[in-house]
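Sequence, please.
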């Protein structure tokens, strides 16, 4: 270095080269740091995605379980509604039969009461006729009329029993 202009140019070129090299090293360091930061962010994002995927899978399993439970509940509900409708129809049929039976019993009761009252009246009339010794009936053909007792008609006609 003897101070020649060529040496100055070389020095200047060396300074520029070292300055450019420093810039390149700094830029490489920045790029490397940025890549490491992005790699770290990418790794965190991948971990968050993995956790979110696990949560999603869990929620999908829960959703499937809920769907199955809902379908089972709906099927049970349909079964119970059909059973309810069937029982309702059976109850209505039983009510109709009960009403018919009650009407029949009521009619039979009325007939029986009438026949019992009629029979009782005939029996008591025959008893009274037997006590009196004569009957108030027009004909003496009744099985309840005592035998050997002349009816008023027979007495009027003069016919003896």
């Amino acid at each position: 270095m003897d101070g020649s202009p060529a040496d100055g140019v070389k020095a200047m070129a060396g300074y520029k080269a070292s300055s450019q090299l420093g810039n390149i090293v700094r830029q490489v360091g920045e790029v490397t740091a940025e890549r490491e930061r992005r790699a770290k962010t990418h790794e965190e994002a991948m971990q968050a995605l993995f956790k979110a995927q696990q949560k999603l899978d869990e929620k999908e399993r829960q959703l499937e379980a809920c769907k199955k439970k809902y379908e089972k509940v709906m099927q049970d509900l349909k079964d119970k509604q059909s059973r309810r409708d069937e029982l309702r129809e059976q109850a209505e049929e039983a009510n109709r039969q009960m009403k018919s039976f009650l009407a029949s019993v009521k009619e039979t009761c009325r007939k029986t009461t009438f026949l019992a009252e009629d029979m009782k009246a005939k029996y008591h009339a025959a008893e009274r006729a037997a006590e009196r010794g004569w009957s108030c009936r027009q004909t003496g053909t009744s099985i309840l009329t005592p035998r050997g007792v002349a009816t008023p008609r027979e007495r009027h006609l003069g016919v003896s029993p």
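The radius of gyration is 62 Å.
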